[in-house]
Design goal:
Layout (H helix, E strand, L loop, with lengths): L1 H19 L3 H11 L14 E3 L5 E3 L17
Antiparallel strand pairs: 1-2
Helix pairs in contact: 1-2
């Protein structure tokens, strides 16, 4: 439960820092230190596409070089 809260806080912090900060890389590093997280191994995300809310298809490669935040939500 606490791990989930930390991950949610990190995601919200990352989203906020990417939208409002002048230096997202520095903010990301600070957040990672604050929450004591580190990527285990960095590798490119696999190629995929998603349908947008307006029915268009977007491909991950179209966003290369820009931060991408994926939020998956479901009910079951």
């Amino acid at each position: 439960m606490i791990g989930s809260i930390r991950r949610l806080s990190l995601a919200l912090g990352l989203a906020g820092s990417l939208l409002a900060a002048s230096s997202p890389a520095a903010d990301l590093e600070a957040l990672m230190k604050e929450f004591r997280v580190a990527p285990s191994e960095l590798k490119p995300a696999p190629e995929f596409s998603l349908k947008t809310l307006d029915g268009k298809v977007t491909v991950l490669a179209d966003h290369r070089g820009r931060p991408v935040l994926l939020y998956f939500w479901a009910t079951w």
